[in-house]
Amino acid sequence: MDEAGKSERYREGMETRRAVLGAAHVDRAQAAKTAFDEPFQDLITEAAWGHVWSRPNWTKRERSMVTIALLAALGHHDEVAMHVRATANTGATPDDIREALLHVAIYAGVPAANHAIKVARQALAEVADESAGGR
C-alpha cells in the first residue's frame, strides 16, 4: 500500500481504520481497490476514519455503538455485520450491541432492529467461531 502523497489526515485515518476493522480487513479492501474506486476509498479513510473516528471526544466503544445503531436504522446490513465484527477491537460488548439495537427498535422501527439483530447474532457467532478456532 503506497501512502506517498497522502495527507496526514489520511494516514491518521488509515491507522484508526486498521485499529477498528483489523489489518486483515483493511489489507483486503486496499488490495481490491481499483483506479475507479480509489478516490472513494481515500474519501472514507480521510473523512470517516481520519475526521470522525479519530476524534478524541468519544471512545472507540461509544463510536462503535452509535455506528451500529445508525447503520441498522438505515438498513445497511453488510456494514452492520462489519461493525459488529469490529467490536472485538473497539471494546463494545454484545450487551452494548443489544442496547444499541433496542434503541433502533424504538426510534427507527422494529423491522429495522429485527433484521439487524439477526445480522448481529450471525456476526457475533462468526467471531466466536473464529476465536474458538485459534485465529
Question: What's the arrangement of secondary structure elements?
Answer:
Elements: H1 8-21, H2 23-32, H3 38-52, H4 60-74, H5 77-90, H6 94-107, H7 110-132
Helix pairs in contact: 1-2, 1-3, 4-5, 4-6, 5-7, 6-7
Q: Beta-strand level of the residues, as a percent range?
A: under 5%
Question: Distance between termini?
Answer: 24 Å
Question: What is the total number of structural domains?
Answer: 2
In CATH, the homologous superfamily of the largest domain goes by the name AhpD-like
Q: What is the molecular shape?
A: globular
Radius of gyration: 15 Å
Q: What does this protein structure show overall?
A:
The protein has seven helices and no strands. With 135 residues, the protein is mainly α. It folds into two domains: 1-57, no CATH class; 58-135, AhpD-like. The longest helix has 23 residues, at 110-132. The chain is globular. The model has no long low-confidence stretch (mean pLDDT 95).
Give me some keywords for this one.
2 domains; mainly alpha; globular; AhpD-like; 135 residues; 7 helices; 0% strand; single chain; 78% helix
Briefly, what is this?
By secondary structure, the protein is mainly α. It is built from seven helices and no strands. It has two domains: 1-57, no CATH class; 58-135, AhpD-like, CATH 1.20.1290.
